[in-house]
Amino acid sequence: MAVSTPANPAPGARARTDGGFTLMESIISIGIVSCLLVMVLNTLGSQVKGRRVRASRWQAEALAHSLLAEIVQSPYKDPDETPSFGTEGAESDATRSDFDDVDDYDGLSVQDTTSVGATYTITASVYYVEVSAPDSAVSYPTFFKRLDVTVSSPFLSRPITLSHLFSYWSR
Q1: Cβ(146)–Cβ(166) below 8 Å
Q2: 66: buried, middle or exposed (CB in 10 Å: 19+, 13-18, 0-12)?
Q3: How many angstroms separate the CA atoms of 143 and 64, rounded?
Q4: How far is CA 109 from CA 20, 41, 95, 98, 140, in A?
Q5: What are the pLDDT digits (tens) for 39-98?
Q6: Residue 46, Cβ neighbours under 10 Å: how many?
Q7: Which of 13, 18, 51, 137 is 20 to 30 A from 157 (CA-CA)?
Q8: Could you tell me how far CA 47 lies from the centroid of its own chain?
Q9: pTM of the predicted model, to two decimals?
């Protein structure tokens, strides 16, 4: 096929051949492909971050349920009839296995590092409540105690909190 050239080309102009891309076309193509690549990578990055957040949330919920299940096995009232709230005597220096009632867990704070690349802080708060207002702590003994187990991690936008209401008559 013969290459056609204009009859009167401009002075200094080169004749264009149909055999390839110009430099400008190549630069524009690279720019378009680069923009598409950035969009795809941003989408994939968001998906990976979303998976990490969901996995952290599931792990935090599992840790909270685990501690809650442990505490629920404890009696409402201290078997030794000790009137104080919280750990008593030797329990303050002991491990959780030495806790003998629900309120011994008040103020518990532990770090869980069993997950790869993540540290979870697990805290427990126990306080007296009235059955008519279980969300509000009272300063005097009642027949109801509320337990809040909270798990936090840098990967969570907000901590996970599970609550349980104990009754004097439940055990």
Answers
A1: yes
A2: middle
A3: 24
A4: 69, 39, 12, 16, 24
A5: 888 888 788 878 888 888 898 999 999 999 999 988 888 777 766 777 776 666 667 777
A6: 10
A7: 137
A8: 15
A9: 0.69
